[in-house]
Sequence to fold (313 residues):
Amino acid sequence: MWDNGMSSGKQLKKSNLKVVIIGFGSIGSKHHSYLKNRPEVAKIAILSSRSKDELPEMKLEKFEDVKKFDPDILYICNQTSKHELELSRIEKNFSKKIIIIEKPLSNNYINLDLYKLNKYFVGYNLRYHPLIDFLKNKVELSGFVKAEISVQTDLRKWRKTDYKSSYSAKSNEGGGVALDLSHEVDYCRYLFGDLDKIFSEKRKISNLEIDSEDQFSLIAQIPNEESLLNFNFSYFAQKEERSIKIFFNDKLLHCDLINSSIIEIKNGEEKLIKLDAYVQERTLEEQFIDIISNDAPKAATITDGQKVLELVL
Fold:
């Protein structure tokens, strides 16, 4: 039995892997783009409503076909509102498998006690962003006073299809800026530890033609400490921003995740730290390698995914 994403000690085989991707939208295709070239992967199949001609691999028509294929790894890449259904079907039919759930875990809290037979991870791949990796391993973060985390984006530019028809636009499918941009909440838990919610607010305030929220604010703190974290996300920005400002008593770190750079401001002087560029597909591949290679990878577990939900729902 495996406990909420942590290994029992048994290593997954690292060659001749069979992989199933459930759902083949934008993120499903991005996972496929690196999986098809990985030497550890022998076969890939896709469970999707798309026609066979639209898919680059074997099409599975129904979940019974997934059972017959008997994969080592399953990716859940369909609508957020369908994640719990897929998790339930997997847990009832498989054991000792690796499950990678595209973030967020769900649009509702789930009962973690129901998921013990497999290793479950949530695809918060910003843990593998060069800037986040630098903060985690090269910067002493204890003693920070405040962090301001901002993601300002334009939903209309996210996908090639009409934004109004995307799941992001529909609250009943798990859309909304809080869940869509919950990467930030996860990487802050990864950097700083558990967080306690003080206040949160979701609103629909722009003229975007959606029924999900387009503005989210969250104030959290480190348990038993005074340090505060202030999150602000929106779907309607004219200029993209993805940043975290970390305030200490004697300096400020202004971290730009889009340009993968940090400006350290101390005693009136600025120092620029330029890091490797962020490439989404690269971080997804690094996450995959980490999960299949390490007994305790840094990837977000199903428990981490639930902790994020407790902060954003």
